[in-house]
Write a structure and sequence with these properties.
Elements (H helix, E strand, L loop, with lengths): L4 E3 L7 E4 L5 H14 L3 E4 L5 H12 L3 E6 L4 E6 L11 E2 L4 H10 L5 E6 L10 H6 L6 E4 L8 E5 L5 E5 L6 H10 L6 E5 L6 H13 L4 E4 L3 E4 L8 E4 L4 H14 L2 E5 L11 H8 L3 E4 L3 E5 L7 E3 L7 H8 L5 E5 L11 H11 L3 E5 L2 E5 L6 E3 L5 H13 L3 E4 L11 H6 L7 E2 L2
Parallel strand pairs: 2-15, 2-24, 3-14, 6-7, 10-11, 18-19, 22-23
Antiparallel strand pairs: 1-23, 3-5, 4-5, 7-9, 8-9, 11-13, 12-13, 15-17, 16-17, 19-21, 20-21
Bound molecules: shikimate-3-phosphate and phosphoenolpyruvate.
Length: 433
Amino acid sequence: MKAESVTIRPLQTFDKRVKVLGSKSYSNRYLALAALSGEATTIEGALVCDDTQFLAGALRAFGHVEVEIDAAAERITVTPTGRPMTAPAEEVYVGAAGTPIRFLIAMAGHADGTTVLTGTKRMQERPMGSLLDALPGVGVTAEAVRGNGSPPIRVTGPSFRGGSTRISGAVSSQFTSSLLVNATRAEQDTEIHLVDDLISKPYVEMTIAALAELGVTVERDGYTRFKVAAGQKLRGGTVAVEPDASGMSYFLAAAAVLGGTVTVPGIGRTSKQGDVGLVDALVRMGCTAEVTDDSITLTGGELHGIDIDMETMPDVVPTLAVVAAFARGTTHISNIASLRIKECDRIAAVTTELRKMGITVEEHADAMTITGGTPHGAVIDTYDDHRIAMCFAIAGLRTEGVVITDPGCVAKSFPTFWQTLDGLHGDDTTSTL
Ligand SMILES: O=C(O)C1=C[C@@H](OP(=O)(O)O)[C@@H](O)[C@H](O)C1
Ligand SMILES: C=C(OP(=O)(O)O)C(=O)O
């Protein structure tokens, strides 16, 4: 039976190494690229979670690849079947997996026939319009079945020939990443012109890095034009995924609010994941950090509020907001309009739940102002949003009586989260799975 809630056990402090599962963003990218390359590919350190499993299921449904998942070994293997890439007869359901559906909409333009992609109720509200508007430029016919810019989305292929297109980057970077990823299989050069400012830029850098790792170069003018020249061949082989910086954020926050120390191995200075930027934010709030080439150590300190633009790291905003609730003074988080269109409206959710804990929060259209204090226990609603569950669990390490409802929702990106959190208790120095 699924647990309806968990009560978080408070903890005095801790000093541990914590193993964080692989990056969701890199796992999604390598899975998609492996399916597009048609080359046998092994992804080591892969994140096996709801989102990557939905993506794997969709890729299998196209018939041209087999995807094997070994969760214990954190390995995903993609092998060509020799069959053509064909539109699945049945609707493809991808749950709440936002990045995967955005990659798959353009990818369906490479499959023969008509593909319909859909997901949860929330997914049926998430915007796809900027991608649908850009796809005709590269040859693809795609439309929202209900004409509202959201899933279900119907795509007819094979139609992704490449060419030149214009796209908005203002709502999500995933649309631009999707075109870049899928341009690797186009017959013609693909040129992507941004008509406005791109948000969440580090994710596009991760896309370009993943393409480069598999042998495809992207030409570019900053963030205004990207070009994938045709005739470059994606290679297969073995790729390695580093730990997930968004998943790491909860354990950094735990050290911050408890005055403890956490070391996360396998990720460091050279990471392109924008969410590593949380380390600097926490240092500005009073923590100390040591970042090496392949590890991040953070120690909590006397916390105080800061002013911070978090446009480049939207997924760790809820984490920072929870830390801010324990800091002296006010924290102003700006430039975060995209949080309203994630798994839930995260500005509204964080505001509501922090207020339940007795914290003063001002909610703005694209910002939040949090005045730190002494939060008290509360039953936290999680809105089917893994990040709301995980960040409020951290509040419960410091505050007695925090109850997290629907704890199973963490499976979207971090299925072992509760075991890893439990590992912070106890005397051993390593919190593993
Ligand atoms: O490309 C990616 O892997 C992601 C991009 C970000 O979305 P936006 O570009 O919509 O901000 C992020 O929130 C999401 O969790 C993962
Ligand atoms: C926003 C997220 O994911 P996605 O957009 O891929 O659903 C997330 O994991 O926080």
